[in-house]
Write a structure and sequence with these properties.
Layout: H1 5-20, H2 26-33, E1 34-42, E2 48-49, H3 52-66, E3 67-81, E4 88-100, E5 113-125, E6 128-136, H4 138-144, H5 176-199, H6 206-210, E7 213-220, E8 227-229, H7 231-245, E9 246-251, E10 256-260, E11 263-267, E12 272-276, E13 290-292, E14 294-301, E15 304-312, H8 314-319, H9 325-333
Parallel strand pairs: 1-6, 7-15
Antiparallel strand pairs: 1-2, 3-4, 4-5, 5-6, 7-8, 9-12, 10-11, 11-14, 12-13, 14-15
Length: about 350
């Protein structure tokens, strides 16, 4: 049986040092834990950075400067072997919480508590972190700061909880057969939907979902879409708007996909390509085909998936179509600085 204790302990030590580090100390922490040929993948505007120095400059330092006393509040922490290339990864999901004391990405600071939802994937090789995929929910953050760049959303966005049973922090190795069963269920669900995509069907019969999902499923979507509860309400508030208002849907595969215990996760770069025909997110359609970077984290209870936390880089998807919501926010709220 594979063990991920060493990888988990390395990532936990990195998290602990990074949390304590002042912005001026961030680079030293990255130099200690990251390999020299480190690769960072993040949401827009951070995107891909090919060194520890660039990752610090573009993402880690500005975030630490904006969120005073920033804590990492984890809800899920798992390790596993990536199905795609057999590398070992550790995934952490939860919120970065702090005091929003300095503008971030042009979003005006509030001096109040704020939570930035995240999912972070770290690949560990030879005692160093070689690759990171770090997704944060910028639209959800903006909504908390009172700056909502989107039309009314179909679901409800809030500071999402972790798993219902509070059993997501797997600091010790879980039984291997549990992860195998979780990943089998997730892959079956993905295949069912891929078959539906290739058929050209726009809707989705509820019985397709019932093969894999609990009737009381919870889908925690990104800011701009929000969360939904139960299969019928999930279909009404996300799945059908997604399926019916986007066309030319192509699944591009994943960078990382693994499971441990009752939890599974994946991200792609990009996962999906599609073209909006009008209505999705309350936005108009167009002729632009755009990529979607997506994270999914799943919880299995028994033989069904019960909860699903999703991050989608919607700001990047919109930017490809000509709308930069961050630049627009900056121009509106920081007009005096231009």
């Amino acid at each position: 049986m594979s063990s991920y204790i060493n990888e988990k302990n390395l990532v936990r030590a990195y998290f602990e040092e990074m949390e304590k580090a002042a912005p001026s100390e961030v680079q030293g922490v990255l130099n200690k834990y990251m390999a020299q040929d480190y690769n960072f993948k993040g949401v827009y505007p951070f995107r891909e950075q090919d060194s520890r120095e660039k990752a610090a400059e573009v993402f880690f330092v500005p975030l630490k400067e904006s969120l005073s006393h920033m804590q990492r509040r984890q809800d899920i922490f798992i390790g596993g072997t990536n199905e795609i290339d057999n590398t070992k990864w550790v995934m952490s999901m939860g919120h970065f919480m702090g005091l929003f004391d300095k503008d971030w990405l042009g979003i005006p600071h509030t001096r109040k508590m704020i939570s930035l939802r995240y999912a972070e994937f770290n690949c560990v090789e030879n005692g160093k972190i070689t690759k990171t995929g770090l997704f944060v929910d910028i639209i959800g953050f903006m909504q908390q700061a009172g700056v909502n760049p989107m039309p009314p959303q179909t679901g409800n966005y809030f500071v999402y909880p972790g798993p219902r049973n509070h059993n997501g922090l797997l600091f010790e190795d879980a039984p291997e057969e549990e992860g195998v069963e979780t990943l089998r269920l997730v892959n079956k669900m993905v295949e069912d939907l891929d078959v539906l995509n290739k058929s050209g069907a726009m809707g989705c019969p509820p019985e397709v979902l019932e093969l894999s999902w609990s009737p009381n499923m919870i889908w925690y979507g990104p800011g701009g879409i929000g969360a939904s509860y139960t299969i019928p309400r999930y279909q009404e508030q996300h799945q059908l708007p997604f399926r019916n208002n986007l066309t030319d849907k192509t699944f591009n595969g994943h960078v990382c996909r693994f499971a441990e215990g009752n939890f599974a996760c994946f991200f792609g770069w990009p996962n999906l390509t599609n073209r909006p025909i009008g209505g999705f997110l309350g936005m108009p359609g167009g002729q632009v085909t755009a990529d979607m970077q997506v994270v999914d984290v799943y919880c299995r209870e028994g033989d069904k998936l019960s909860e699903n936390w999703v991050l989608i880089d919607l700001p990047y998807w919109l930017k490809q179509q000509g709308l930069d919501i961050l630049e627009r926010t900056k121009q509106i709220y920081n007009a005096d600085n231009h």
